[in-house]
Amino acid sequence: MDADVCISGGGPAGVMLGLLLARQGVEVVVVEKHADFFRDFRGDTVHPSTLNLIDALGLRSRFDAIPHDPLPRLDAVINGIRLHAIDLSSLPRPNDFLTLMPQWDLLALLAEAGAEHPSFRLRMGVEAAGVLHERGRVAGIRTTDGEDMRAALTVAADGRDSTVRRALGLTPRSYGVPIDVLWFRLPRPTEPLPDTLLWANENGLLVTIPRPGYLQCGLLIPKSGFARVQADGLEAFRRRITTITPRLAGPVTELASLDDVKLLSVQVDRLEHWWRPGALCIGDAAHAMSPVFGVGINYAIQDAVAAAQRVGPALRDRFARDHAVDRACAAVQRRRELPTAAMQRLQRGVHGAIATGALARVVDNPPTRGQRAALRSILPALLPLAARMIGYGFRPERIR
Ligand SMILES: Cc1cc2nc3c(=O)[nH]c(=O)nc-3n(C[C@H](O)[C@H](O)[C@H](O)COP(=O)(O)OP(=O)(O)OC[C@H]3O[C@@H](n4cnc5c(N)ncnc54)[C@H](O)[C@@H]3O)c2cc1C
Q: Where would one find the signal peptide in this protein (predicted)?
């Protein structure tokens, strides 16, 4: 054996699992195909559930030393009516906010913490090409350079297009998604803007993520609609942004070209079987998450915690290790499948509301009497529930 556990993918799921296993003394190797963590398109929300884990790992002071933007509240502006849609200040302190931290910084922090354990190895620039089989079990990975790495457990944490998952012969069930996202940056408006996540009206829906120094924007478009946007040209794109968010009329003129607008394909899928003898899928490799509610990173990390707590002890079984590892993998799926399915169900509901325009009709401008009464009575009751759902997800994990 080259390691007890070989993990393909150095994203949030893979690096967190590597760290947690190394803390238990498990020999673990994480292979990441890129030479660095620098990637722009994966979101960078760190939710209260992950902040709680950072605290439990004793990494808080190092986390706080990295520049990040704590956001206790985020508004939604629907038809010009500003709603205080997300308010995490009702959650228990100290982690009663979500924060935006570039994902490469978070991954670097976790990797650094992992490297303090002698049994942790992270190999950057190494790509899994397939899996090894021995005695009817998965026995490690083969890299694109032809290197074999043998392990008692192989973990696919290599994202929604997972190579290892494919090599295991596992295919996720795909749920149709009617939307894609166009991803671009704008300068912040000169007049300060309250932290606003979402702008919606009959012209479309725009997400704005306040990052230090600029706004990361995501315009939702119908699936496969990017060719149409490109054909209509830059001026039409700018006009569209301005009609959805008049306050961005100035900043959007600084968008120089549609080449600065990237298409991010939204996908929601889930495996029926998350494991095979000797192998386990976690994170997006087991269930691709939509960006709705920005919970994908946190769900990937929660999978890692659930896996580490079951697989770590199983690896210590001296007499029936293979059997114990497989039982642990099955237990990980049992633990994480339901919270994942529930969140994906909600995400798909929101996709439907976006695609049919129902979201933009939630409130008129000016609101009708019924809407005003509903906003006054229902919204305050819903806010704490929404805060828990977004902040922790369903069935949050704790590090024992
Ligand atoms: C448009 C968009 C916006 C999003 N925004 C947010 C957000 O704001 N907040 C949020 O929480 N979630 C967001 N998500 C979801 C989130 O990106 C994912 O759910 C999350 O990154 C999953 O983590 P992971 O570790 O499972 O996989 P990934 O983050 O995809 O990491 C997989 C890693 O494996 C590596 N890899 C791939 N193949 C191989 C291989 N063969 N060998 C070795 N390494 C390999 C990749 O380079 C990558 O580093 C968004 C998703 C989309 C599509």
A: none
- From 297, 336, 347, mutation site for ligand 1 pocket: most ligand atoms within 8 A of C-beta: 297
Closest-CA residue to 334 (of 358, 307, 308): 307
Find the 39 Cα to ligand 1 centroid distance in Å. 9
Query: For residue 107, what is the enclosing H or E element?
Result: helix 103-115
Residues in Cβ contact with 58 at an 8 Å cutoff, skipping those fewer than 6 apart? none
User: What DSSP element (H or E) covers 69?
Assistant: strand 69-71
Domain 179-264 has CATH 3.50.50.60: no
| Ligand 1 center to 42 CA (angstroms) | 6
Q: pLDDT by residue (tens digit) across 166-209?
A: 999 999 999 989 999 999 999 988 887 788 888 988 888 999 98
Can you tell me which atom of ligand 1 is nearest the CA of 285?
26
What number is the average pLDDT over the span 89-96?
A: 92
Mean pLDDT for the stretch of residues 118-142: 97
Query: Taking Cα atoms as reference points, which of 35, 344, 376 lies closest to residue 160?
Result: 344
Residue 42 confidence (pLDDT): 67
Give the DSSP per-residue string, 287-316: -PPPSGGG-HHHHHHHHHHHHHHHHHHHHT
What are the sequence ranges of the domains in the chain?
3-68+91-175+268-357+388-392, 179-264
Percent share of the chain, pLDDT over 70: 99
For residue 284, the CA-to-ligand 1 centroid distance in Å is: 7
Of 300, 267, 255, nearest to 282 (Cα)? 300
CATH number for the domain running over 3-68+91-175+268-357+388-392: 3.50.50.60
pLDDT given at position 216: 87
Q: Rounded CA gap, 229 and 263, in Å?
A: 11
Q: What is the mean pLDDT of the chain?
A: 92
For residue 126, which atom of ligand 1 is closest to its CA?
43
Instruction: Inform me whether the pLDDT recorded for 97 exceeds 80.
Output: yes
137: left (phi > 0), else alpha (psi -120 to 50), else beta?
A: beta
- Which residue type, as a one-letter code, is found at position 118? P
Cβ neighbors of 82 (< 8 A, separation 6 or more) are: 75, 76, 194, 196
